Amino acid sequence: MSVKGFTLLEILLVMTILAVISITFQQSSLLDSWRQWQRMRSLRASAYSLLEIISYTRTLATSTQQSMFLCGNWDCHSGWGRQVFVYRTDDGSLQWQQIITSSDDISIVWKGFPIQRDHIEFTPEGGASYQNGSFYICDPDYLLRVRLNQSGRAYLDPIVELSTTTVEVESCYGS
């Protein structure tokens, strides 16, 4: 009786050769995919940190019945950086400080109405003091937008690839 087929050793040898060839051709694309996933994860983490501090500031204003400022810098006058600060309006005391991102590649830009304000004021009623706008959390290839409405509620938009749009690129880096 003659049995035809492959031995276990032959099957393992062929699978090993196919795996090595596959890894060789896909290594660069796997590495690129991994880096892309890490960058998108970092953007999402920054956006969720920002959403958390916006919600905290709004809650603090309503629970203490005092207006609170959400600022992008320690003095509330010089734009937005990688940290966010929460101040009380009555005595200017610092209530909270949170690092939004530690990556040098990520920038945070506030574009809102009225344009001249470098801070967002949350009133004791929870509103954003007639301010609305968007935070753009940008890296060289992607961005996330966190929208803030006048009632003080924030919403997260999906990740956008900068190569597919021009409006958001201008929002992140100027024209």
Automatic annotation (TrEMBL):
Pfam families associated with the record: GspH, N_methyl
Main location: membrane
Keyword check for Membrane: yes
Residue ranges of domain General secretion pathway GspH in the record: 50-152
Keywords of this entry: Cell inner membrane, Cell membrane, Membrane, Methylation, Transmembrane, Transmembrane helix
Record localization: Cell inner membrane
Assigned GO CC terms: plasma membrane; type II protein secretion system complex
Domain of life per record: Bacteria
Membrane-spanning segments: 6-25
Topological category with respect to the lipid bilayer: Single-pass membrane protein
GO annotation, biological process: protein secretion by the type II secretion system
UniProt xrefs under NCBIfam families: IV_pilin_GFxxxE
Family to which this protein belongs: Belongs to the GSP H family.
Name used for this protein in its record: Type II secretion system protein H
Organism: Maribrevibacterium harenarium
